[in-house]
Amino acid sequence: MWNWVHQLAEWAREDTPFAVVTVTECKGSTPAPPGAKLLVRADGTFHGTIGGGHLDETVVWSIRGMKDADHGRPEPFAPSA
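Above: the chain sequence. Below: its structure as tokens.
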């Protein structure tokens, strides 16, 4: 199992902006269960997965554009996005 808390602590010590993406709900067949995590830095560096492939890439690019956006705001993403 991936220790996302360890990675989170390391990035927090580096004082680098980052986001924690968490799957909160799934409908139908999904590649990642609720609770899956993806940690993303503002520069696009990431660890973990919320489903792989296109979904991870879409979320990473979205976060890279949110540097001055609201914090803690839920954002729905669909695998077909």
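The first strand starts at residue 18 and ends at 22.
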